[in-house]
């Protein structure tokens, strides 16, 4: 299954304590570039990055996580056990000489906890995890739909390349025949002009050298193999844009070699069509994870 590197997914999850909104955007990039924008602490941000990396292997990924307390949630809470501990210890120290001031106790570390404190944020993780995972599911659904569309287009272009390559093969024998005819005509003209003779074996040898030099059968076999591999990889359950990109480069290299070796106008026309189809595939592959 091909996955596009371009997509968008979002999710909103809330319970009685908090509301978490997550938005994930992805665009193509050669490597994985991850940016998480959130008001959560570094530990939770690291966990969010871990969830994203499990689902996305390549691309530029932007994640925005926004948390807010629910309507019945309080932004502050008292740590009653800690407050009681402070009270007992100070009362024991003061004895009966003076009472412990409650307002002073409230200023002591840890007595009043904000909902955004590290301890409170840690309690948010289950709902944050659920929201991030849902956003990633929505993102991957969109990426899969776009990937399937690209897959069909690339398969169609591979079919076009195969058709043009078959026409190149049919034209190959004519390349040698045309060269032999041109060579013979040119030599005959020279023989008539200068009244000299040439052995037929010399002409055959020259045509043989040309035939060996312009033989591109090896390149057509390799190009066929690259197309078969491309079609096989594109049908797999995993998305592997790197391999597809490599094969496209090899397909273009073999096509250029065929064009340069053939030295034939008809084959050159087919080569242009093949290179045009490869270029369309290359543009698609650049956006495959």
Just name the CATH architecture of the largest domain: Up-down Bundle
Structural class determined from secondary elements: alpha+beta
Q: Order the strands across the largest sheet as they lie in space.
A: 1-2-4-3
Q: What is the string of SSEs from the N terminus onward?
A: EEEHEEHHEHHHHH
What CATH calls the topology of the largest domain is: Butyryl-CoA Dehydrogenase, subunit A, domain 3
Helix content class: 55-70%
The major β-sheet equals: 4 strands, mixed
Number of strands: 6
Overall mean pLDDT stands at 83
Specify the overall morphology: rod-shaped
Q: Uncertain runs with pLDDT below 50, 5 residues or more?
A: none
User: What is the gyration radius calculated from CA atoms?
Assistant: 36 Å
Our estimate of the beta-strand percent is 5-15%
The figure for the number of domains is 3
The helix count comes to 8
CATH class of the largest domain: Mainly Alpha
């Amino acid at each position: 299954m091909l996955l596009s590197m371009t997509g968008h997914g979002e999710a909103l999850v809330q319970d009685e304590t908090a509301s978490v909104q997550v938005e994930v955007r992805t665009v193509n990039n050669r490597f994985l570039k991850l940016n998480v924008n959130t008001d959560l602490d570094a530990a939770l941000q690291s966990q969010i990055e871990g969830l994203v990396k499990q689902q996305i292997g390549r691309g530029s990924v932007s994640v925005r996580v926004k948390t807010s307390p629910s309507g019945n949630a309080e932004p502050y809470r008292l740590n009653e056990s800690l407050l009681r501990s402070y009270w007992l210890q100070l009362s024991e120290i003061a004895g009966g000489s003076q009472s412990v001031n409650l307002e002073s106790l409230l200023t002591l570390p840890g007595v009043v906890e904000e909902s955004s404190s590290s301890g409170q944020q840690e309690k948010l993780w289950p709902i944050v995890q659920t929201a991030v995972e849902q956003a990633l599911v929505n993102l991957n659904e969109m990426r899969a739909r776009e990937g399937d569309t690209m897959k069909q287009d690339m398969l169609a272009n591979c079919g076009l390349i195969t058709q043009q390559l078959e026409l190149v093969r049919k034209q190959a024998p004519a390349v040698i025949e045309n060269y032999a005819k041109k060579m013979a005509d040119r030599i005959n003209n020279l023989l008539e002009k200068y009244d000299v003779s040439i052995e037929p074996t010399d002409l055959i040898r020259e045509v043989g050298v040309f035939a060996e030099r312009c033989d591109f059968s090896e390149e057509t076999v390799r190009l066929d193999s690259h197309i078969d591999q491309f079609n096989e990889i594109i049908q797999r359950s995993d998305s592997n844009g790197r391999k597809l990109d490599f094969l496209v480069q090899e397909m273009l290299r073999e096509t250029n070699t065929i064009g340069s070796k053939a030295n034939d106008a008809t084959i050159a026309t087919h080569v242009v069509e093949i290179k045009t189809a490869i270029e369309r595939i290359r543009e698609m592959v650049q956006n495959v994870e």
